[in-house]
UniProtKB/TrEMBL annotation:
Molecular function as annotated in GO: zinc ion binding
CDD domains (alphabetical): Bbox2 (cd19756)
Entry-linked InterPro entries: TRIM45/56/19-like, Znf_B-box
Keywords: Metal-binding, Zinc, Zinc-finger
Tree of life domain: Eukaryota
Positions of the B box-type domain: 15-61
UniProt protein name: B box-type domain-containing protein
Pfam families: zf-B_box
Keyword Zinc-finger tagged: yes
Length: 231
């Protein structure tokens, strides 16, 4: 039967040894490396189940475990430091990424404003041209209307005069009125036939493909996310 002993914790304090699960009255003294269990003296003597197993004294096992714990702790702390740096970098990169997207959005809005202004200018130019052509055409129509309205009134007066005074006309009067009638009859009253201006467009410029070329598109490289740490 083994005597009660103690183990030292990480701070060197003495803690009581636990009891063996196979022999309830015995304290554990070894660690079976093959079966990976804690065992007592009775487990390795006589007909003990672990008498032929490779075993380590509990104190040696504790020291080894403590060294491994300290080593793992140091590696974990190093990794925590690296992870902290990676997190700072990730937040910085995320901020820059979002700032770049905001800049692109501002560029899209600005581009639209430029295009809108250009279209406003083109619209004003086209309307000015159409109004100019209309004014030219209206000038011709008004000149024709005024000329022939005046002629109409004069000849109307002439024909009415002839009908009311024909029997009283002298030879000279008849020659004069005949000359006026011939001149009127031989004159041309062709109405100006001006082809109205037509606003024409090419439907291909209304396609999404062309408008995208005009307005712009997004160049985007698919994100290739790589893990920054392995846990």
């Amino acid at each position: 039967m083994s005597q009660k002993g103690c183990l030292s914790d990480a701070h060197g304090a003495c803690i009581s040894e636990p009891m063996c699960v196979y022999h309830k009255s015995e304290y554990i003294r070894f660690y079976c490396e093959e079966c990976r269990v804690f065992i007592c003296d009775d487990c390795i003597t006589g007909k003990g189940k672990h008498r032929r197993c490779f075993k380590t004294k509990l104190s040696d096992y504790g020291n080894r475990t403590r060294r491994l714990l300290r080593e793992r702790t140091k590696r974990a702390e190093d990794k925590l430091s690296k992870l902290s740096s990676e997190l700072d970098l990730a937040m910085h990169v995320q901020k820059r990424f979002n700032e770049a997207v905001d800049e692109s959005i501002s560029s899209v809005v600005f581009r639209r404003e430029i295009i809108r202004q250009k279209f406003d200018d083109l619209q004003k130019e086209l309307i000015t041209k159409l109004d100019g052509l209309r004014n030219q055409a209206n000038t011709q129509y008004e000149e024709f209307i005024n000329l022939h309205t005046n002629q109409y009134c004069k000849m109307k007066e002439v024909t009415e005069t002839i009908r009311t005074t024909e029997t009283e006309m002298t030879e000279n009067d008849m020659v004069m009125y005949t000359s006026k009638l011939n001149k009127f009859i031989d004159s041309s009253e062709a109405v100006p036939k001006l082809e109205p201006p037509s606003y024409v467009t090419d439907d291909k410029y209304f396609s999404s493909k062309y408008l995208r070329q005009l307005f712009g598109d997004i160049e985007f490289v698919e994100l290739n996310c790589q893990p920054i740490a392995t846990y």
